[in-house]
Design brief:
This protein is mainly alpha-helical and 166 residues long. Helices cover 58% and strands 2% of the residues.
Length: 166
C-alpha cells in the first residue's frame, strides 16, 4: 500500500525555491516564444535566483557566474530551437531531458535523506543527466562530484537545508 508521501502530487515535495526555479524556467521559454522547457532554462533560472544555494555552490567552485549566465543565454537564444513563425505557443512541453532531470532530483533528494527537493538537488540532477546544460557546466569545470563535496561541506557547517518545510 502506498505511503501518504507517495500519494501527494509530485511538486508538493519541492521547496518553494525549487518550484520558483521551475516556474521561472517555464517563463523563460514563453518569453523566447519556444514551445518547450529544457534543462538550460532550468539551469538559467537556478543561477538567477536571489539567495540561492546554487550560487553559493558555484562560487565556492570559483565559477564565473556572469560568464556561465552569458553562455546559457546564448544557447537559449538559438533561433533554430525557437518557433519558426514567432507566434506564441499555448502548449509548452517539458523536453525528455528536463523530465528526466526533475524525476532524478526526487531520487537525489531521497538518497541524501532529504524530505524535500530543493535547488541543490535540481543542480545535481542537471549534472546527472545528459543534456546541453550538463555540457555547459562541464565546460566550466563543474562536475557532480565537486558540487556534492562542496554541498556536503556547506551542510556540515549549516545543517541540511532541504529539511525545511516547502
Amino acid at each position: 500500500m502506498p505511503t501518504p508521501k507517495e500519494n501527494q502530487p509530485p511538486f508538493n515535495r519541492f521547496t518553494a525555491k525549487a518550484r520558483e526555479a521551475i516556474r521561472d524556467a517555464h517563463r523563460m521559454a514563453v518569453e523566447r516564444q519556444e514551445d518547450h522547457v529544457n534543462p538550460q532554462h532550468l539551469l538559467s533560472a537556478l543561477i538567477q535566483q536571489d539567495d540561492s544555494i546554487v550560487i553559493s555552490l558555484l562560487q565556492k567552485l570559483d565559477v564565473d557566474i556572469s560568464q556561465l549566465s552569458n553562455e546559457l543565454a546564448s544557447t537559449l537564444s538559438d533561433p533554430k530551437e525557437s518557433l519558426q513563425d514567432g507566434s506564441p505557443s499555448y502548449q509548452i512541453y517539458l523536453t525528455p531531458e528536463l523530465a528526466k532531470t526533475l524525476e532524478a532530483s526526487t531520487r537525489i533528494a531521497q538518497n541524501m535523506d532529504d524530505e524535500y527537493v530543493s535547488t541543490e538537488h535540481l543542480l545535481l540532477s542537471v549534472l546527472s543527466n545528459d543534456s546541453d546544460a550538463k555540457k555547459i557546466l562541464t565546460k566550466f569545470g563543474i562536475k557532480k562530484s565537486k558540487v556534492k563535496n562542496v554541498l556536503d561541506d556547506l551542510r556540515d557547517n549549516k545543517g541540511k537545508p532541504a529539511q525545511r518545510t516547502p
